[in-house]
Amino acid sequence: MKSIDIQTLNKMLGAGDAPILLDVRRRADCAANPQTIAGAKWCDPENIDRWVKDLPSARPIVLYCVKGGPVSQSAVERLRKEGFDAALVEGGLKAWIDSGQPVHAVLPKPYTIQTDDVDMLRRAGVSAQDIVHSVKVAEKALEIAGRTRADLDMELVGRGALFHDLGKARTHEIEHGKLGAEMGLALGLPKAVTALMEKHIRGGISPEEAVELGLPVKDYTLGTLEERIIIYADRLVDIITDGIVEIQAEIEAEVRFEEILQSIPKYGKNDRTLVRYLGYHREIQGLLKM
User: Fold this and answer.
1) Which domain holds residue 47?
2) Of 3, 61, 134, 221, which is most buried by a Cβ count within 10 Å?
3) Which of 267, 225, 224 minimizes the C-alpha distance to 245?
4) 43 with 163, same domain?
């Protein structure tokens, strides 16, 4: 097992070619001590299969957990098997703190829906009814994202869900996704948010479907878990609020999701859309049960 001590880490962090520093403490340990080494990125060790794919292979990687124990050891072993130059910090964060080194806050404040964003929807001309729907979708998406315990961009989840129907300020037709993305870019919204706005139609259509629907021909696939959670939340909110299906509690929409989509065309749309939505449901429910 490759490891480095605190003095070596200090020298490495001060160099021009500093390593990537990862805090791989468990979520509960971070909550118990919301501090980290400056420059470190927290990565949930339970989701290593996801974030390991995003690490650059050319730079050395240093990881730490609470005391340099099994959590960081397991992560280092996994990264080295993947070909990374990875090492753990001897003694972990405790050794760093005990040596008198500075620490910084690690856990960001939970993302909440911003009143300025809701006001932006209103000023753009989105109806009160559509704003209520968008807020409910954002709330549901944030709730589901939190329950997955995945390492997610919660701001993207919240804002993407809130703005997904921005184009309905102009039309409720199929092109509202494209128009909303254009409006979002003009308003200065992040590209990740506007991309979701354009791609959310029918849950992420193929280029062939775009031709059939008269939309610009491109791949609208939902490539991130954040996007899929938003679309899943959108469909759940429709089921919960439309009044077509008698729902006693919101969780029932998740439990009965497959039955509802397969029996009510309004929600399943067509065979291709149905397959997509069922895939998102199974993926996300799988994460919730982990």
Assistant:
1) 3-105
2) 134
3) 267
4) no
209 shares a domain with 279: yes
Contact 126, 25 (CB under 8 A): no
Which residue, among 30, 44, 45, 40, has the nearest Cα to 61 in the 3D structure? 40
Contacts of 19 (CB under 8 A, 6+ apart): 12, 13, 59, 60, 61, 62
What integer pLDDT is reported at residue 174 of this predicted model?
94
Q: Per mean pLDDT, which range of 32-41, 61-70, 89-98, 111-120 is the poorest?
A: 32-41
pLDDT per position as a tens digit, 117-146: 999 999 999 999 999 999 999 999 999 998
- Which tens digit of pLDDT belongs to each residue from 234-265? 999 999 999 999 988 899 999 999 999 999 99
Distance CA 91, CA 4 (A): 9
Closest CA to 26 of 56, 70, 62, 60: 70
Residue 244: phi and psi, rounded to 5, are -75, -40
In this structure, what CATH number is given to the domain that contains residue 129? 1.10.3210
pLDDT above 60 for 272: yes
Q: How many helices (H) and strands (E) does the chain have?
A: 16, 7
Per-residue buried b or exposed e for 16-46, using 16+ beta carbons within 10 Å of the residue's own CB: eeebbbbbbbeeebbeeeeebbeebebbbbe
Residue 184 and residue 78: Cα distance in Å, rounded?
40
Q: Looking at 60, 78, 105, which one is the last position of a domain?
A: 105
Q: What is the largest CA-CA distance in the chain?
A: 64
